[in-house]
Structure formats: C-alpha cells, structure tokens
Specification:
About 5% of the residues lie in helices and about 40% in strands. It has about 350 residues and is mostly beta strands.
C-alpha cells in the first residue's frame, strides 16, 4: 500500500508552461477554464492556453517591478494585476493591451487583487495595511481605504454575492468587510498563529490566502503556521479543528464548485484536497498531488474505509484514530499492514456493529 491516497475520479494533469526564466509569483484561471494568466518577477504577465500549454501572444508589459497578483474578470475579458511597483493595472485579455492608466493609491506593494462577482469592482490588498476598492470601468477609487489591519494585507476575496470582502493579513487575522459601505463586519477572525481579520483569529502566523465557500457560509484560510482553518461567516467562530498535513506555509486555498472539497497549495510542494463535508469528524486528506510522479495505490473514502485499486473495502478507520492514521498515509513511503489476527470480512463487520455503527 503506497503512502498516498487519491480520489479515483481526479486525474492529475501534468502540464508544464515554459516561458519564464524568473519565479512565477501568481497564477489564475479564466472563469471558463480555457486560459491561465501568470505574473512573475520579470515584471510581466503571460497568458497560456490550458489545452496546449502554449503561451498566447506576447508578454504583457508595463509594470516596473515584480507582478505579485493576477485576477481574471468574471467574463474573461480583462485581467487585473498588482505589483511591487505599488500599482494595479488592467489588461485586455484578448489583445494584451493595457486598459487605461495604472490605478494609483496604495503607498506600498500591492499583494492581492480580486474582481467582484459582477466584474464592476476590483479589491486590492497591500503592504500598506489597507484594502482599496476600485471602479473596474473607470479606474477610479470607490470610497475610502478600508483600514483596521495592523500588518500587510496578503489576500482579498469577494463573497459569492459580492456583498462582502474577506481579507487575510500578516497580523494573523481575517477581517470581513461590507463591500458597499467599507465598514468592518463583526470582530476579526483569529486562530492562526502566523498571519490571517471580526478579525477571525487563531492562526499563529500570517494568513496567506482566504476563500469563500460557494454558498458564502464559510471562509477557508491558509497560513504560514502550516494549517488551514474553516470559519463560520455568520458567527465568526472557527469550525472544527485546524486542518494539518502540510509541512510548510499554506500559500493558497480554494473551494470546489460544489463546496464539498477544499484544495490547498503549500510551500512543501504539494496540493492537498480535503473533504469539507466531514468537518465535524475531522476532514480527511483525500488526495495529495506531488511533483514526483508517485503512483497512488489506495484511497480513503468519506466514510473512513481504506479501498484498494478496485474499490474494495480493506479496513475501516474509526473516527477517533482517523487523523493519526491519515498522518501515516500522507508519508511518502511504502506502508505495509500486518493483518495477522485482524478481524476482516464478516468478523470485522460483526465487531463494527458492536460499536454501534454499520456501513
């Protein structure tokens, strides 16, 4: 049994987009999934065809320093970019031409940009500790800067209905804001021990990424404390325990369109996919994508059953030990189970029923 587990219906697609001689700092998909835009430390944005892996057109040039964040408009017609040069620029995604003048207002690096769901506004987060909102059609600032964070704003995102903005910061908090009035909503969300805003507090280090669930009820946050945390938008409370499994900073988090899964990307060179529907029973890491091309020979389903390649149930992992067992499955080593003396088949089922549960 190889020490990784996957969803059988997820087919990792290995596509190398070659064109940079410098680090790529940000990537984003177009909403139809046909293109990827990337920003890099060579001050350019490039557009790629997802199906062919080929660069589309010439690099988009105009920024005078590294491009830290890129975002497609919902209709795919435009790309917004934020840079070390303290500006936001808008680009025609089809021609590659810059649209209008740079958006100037931040006094330090622009670390994150996001379009509102209707494409009418752009939110930006900066090292100057503020969030600014811009009219995407005119390039003018919409209202005053949103202030409250005490350190760099590393990530901004709109709620699915466009009514709220969530921001994650190096001050280890997540804040929620009314997108129309610019007022803070509730208290910071806290819990990360390295940066996240309510605020939502709990992370023990910087909050690197925030994402709303498709229904707008939850926020997922990834942090330099190597954890992902889930928050109830209405109460500001953390839901369940931190999701642990990454061995380095969590740089990006995203929900699946149906809200059932959370994907997290890390500085440990892995992408992990979590079952969001098991929050009250500690979400399982159900898929680990790595760059080593390892073959995955087992799967753990949502009920905690270890399955072989044919989908046959091998052994059930009780909830009380599931987290520890999954930790060993995450290791990049072969795992052998000595099943001598273990109750399997009907004997296992009868034993399982004694505990008051059945499949």
């Amino acid at each position: 049994m190889k020490g990784k587990n996957v969803l059988p219906d997820i087919q990792p697609r290995q596509q190398h987009l070659i064109g940079y001689q410098n680090p790529v700092l940000s990537v984003t998909y177009s909403y139809d999934g046909a293109y990827v835009a990337s920003g890099a430390s060579d001050n350019t944005i490039r557009i790629w065809d997802v199906h062919t892996g080929q660069q589309v057109g010439h690099p988009l040039t105009g920024h005078t320093f590294s491009v830290l964040s890129v975002a497609y408009s919902p209709d795919g017609a435009y790309i917004a970019s934020g840079s070390y040069d303290k500006t936001i620029r808008m680009w025609d995604a089809h021609t590659g031409q810059q649209v209008g003048n740079p958006l100037i207002g931040h006094t330090d690096w622009v670390l994150s940009v996001a379009y509102s769901p209707d494409g009418a506004y752009i939110a930006s987060g900066s090292k100057d500790k503020t969030i600014r909102i811009w009219d995407a059609h005119t390039g003018q600032r919409a209202g005053q800067p949103l202030t409250g964070h005490t350190a760099s704003v590393l990530s901004v995102t709109y709620s699915p209905d466009g009514a709220y903005i969530a921001s994650g910061s190096s001050d280890n908090t997540i804040w929620m804001w009314d997108a129309y009035t610019g007022q803070r909503v509730g208290q910071p969300v806290t819990g990360h021990t390295v940066s996240v805003g309510h605020p939502l507090t709990g992370h023990t280090s910087s909050v690197r990424s925030v994402a709303y669930s498709p229904d707008g009820a939850y926020i997922a946050s990834g942090s330099s404390d190597n954890t992902i945390r889930i928050w109830d938008v209405h109460t500001g409370q953390q839901v369940g325990r931190p999701l642990t499994g990454h061995t380095n900073w969590v740089l990006s988090v995203a929900y699946s369109p149906d809200g059932a899964y959370i994907a997290s990307g890390s500085r440990d060179y892995t992408i992990q996919i979590w079952n969001f529907t098991l929050l009250n029973d500690q979400p399982l890491i159900i898929h680990v994508l790595t760059t080593d091309g390892a073959t995955n020979l087992c799967d753990v389903d949502s009920g905690g059953w270890v399955l072989d390649q044919g989908g046959n149930k091998l052994i059930h992992i009780p909830p009380r030990v599931r987290r520890r067992f999954m930790f060993y499955l995450e290791e990049d080593t072969a795992l052998t189970l000595d099943l001598r003396g273990v109750k399997l088949g009907k004997a296992w089922y009868e034993n399982f029923k004694v505990e008051g549960k059945s499949d």
